């Protein structure tokens, strides 16, 4: 039964092929006025309106399909462009951050040469956070005990002393800035060779002003005098800062205040509010002999 069906289909196929060949031969062999050409023209005339109507009916369908295709293609292009925008935005932010860090790095290098920082085995660190409650008094850096950092290590940044390490974890540390009320530094005024020393502490109620206290009332101090670390312990100070690290400059000098209160106002040299990079001096006692206050 199956073989008969297959033979019939083959016979029908062969017949159709034969008829097609005969019609094609006759069509191309006849003149334009032949019956076959007339039949073709008649079929075209009958089907042409149908084709035109179908084209008009299907036109909205084609438009919708094209719109969907264009929309999907546009969405894909939009997603690609958004990824590119995010990439270049990130690149721009990184370049901006590097541009902002560069001046600080340049000043750090100059300070390194000035104080011979290599003798103190400095460890470079990036500022990775600030305490939201004491925004200008502590910072978090990305170096810790794994890098040789210990409590009390002095920290320099910008072009001056900025504070010292007060908490150490293996991979990060907390630095207390010189603007914090818990920090005090033995400091010296470079005032025409006298080199008067005192205790530098934050001014109450002012985040960007320090007070150099316990000065002689007759010290030859003037506005603009540089204040540097004294390099020895004083009173209850527990940390020994290397000598000669810039801290700030004398500002708003008042002879009466110096005479009566034995103190002057000092503005920090470092921009404590915008620190991005710092150096931690992991060996602050670079030499065995250091001066001590009796």
Characterise the protein shown here:
The protein has 294 residues and is of the alpha+beta class. It has two domains: 2-63, no CATH class; 116-281, Rod shape-determining protein MreC, domain 1 (Thrombin, subunit H, Beta Barrel). It is 39% helix and 22% strand. The protein contains three helices and twelve strands. The chain has helices at residues 2-29, 35-115, 255-261, and strands at 122-130, 138-141, 154-157, 160-168, 173-177, 185-189, 197-202, 210-213, 226-229, 246-250, 264-268, 277-281. Strands 1-2-5-4-3-12 form a six-stranded antiparallel barrel. A six-stranded antiparallel beta barrel has the order 6-7-8-11-10-9. Residues 287-294 have low confidence and may be disordered.
Total beta strands? 12
Shape: rod-shaped
Class computed from helices, strands and strand pairing = alpha+beta
Number of domains: 2
Radius of gyration: 43 Å
Major β-sheet annotation: 6 strands, antiparallel, barrel
Q: How large is the count of helical segments?
A: 3
- Distance linking N and C termini: 124 Å
**Highest CATH level, the class of the largest domain:** Mainly Beta
What is the helix/strand order?
Answer: HHEEEEEEEEEEHEE
Strand content: 15-25%
């Amino acid at each position: 039964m199956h073989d008969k069906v297959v033979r019939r289909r083959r016979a029908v196929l062969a017949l159709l092929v034969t008829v097609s060949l005969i019609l094609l031969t006759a069509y191309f062999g006849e003149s334009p006025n032949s019956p076959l050409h007339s039949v073709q023209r008649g079929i075209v005339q009958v089907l042409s309106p149908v084709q035109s109507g179908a084209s008009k009916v299907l036109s909205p369908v084609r438009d919708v399909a094209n719109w969907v295709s264009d929309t999907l293609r546009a969405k894909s292009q939009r997603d690609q462009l958004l990824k590119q925008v995010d990439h270049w935005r990130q690149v721009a932010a990184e370049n901006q951050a590097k541009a902002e860090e560069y001046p600080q790095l340049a000043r750090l290098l100059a300070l390194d040469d000035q104080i011979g920082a290599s003798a103190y085995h400095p460890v470079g660190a990036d500022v990775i956070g600030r305490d939201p409650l004491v925004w200008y008094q502590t910072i978090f850096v990305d170096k810790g005990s794994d890098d040789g950092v210990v409590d009390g290590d002095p920290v320099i940044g910008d072009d001056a002393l900025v504070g010292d390490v007060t908490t150490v974890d293996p991979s990060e540390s907390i630095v207390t800035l010189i603007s914090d009320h818990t920090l005090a530094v033995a400091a010296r005024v470079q005032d025409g060779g006298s080199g008067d020393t005192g205790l530098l502490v934050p001014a109450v109620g002012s985040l960007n002003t320090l007070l150099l206290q316990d000065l002689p009332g007759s010290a030859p101090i003037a506005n603009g005098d540089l204040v540097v670390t004294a390099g020895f312990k004083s009173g209850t100070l527990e940390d020994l800062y290397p000598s000669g690290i810039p801290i700030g400059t004398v500002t708003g000098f008042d002879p009466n205040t110096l005479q009566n209160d034995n103190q002057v106002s000092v503005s920090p040299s470092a921009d404590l509010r915008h620190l991005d990079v710092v150096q931690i001096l992991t060996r602050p006692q670079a030499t065995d002999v250091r001066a001590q206050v009796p």
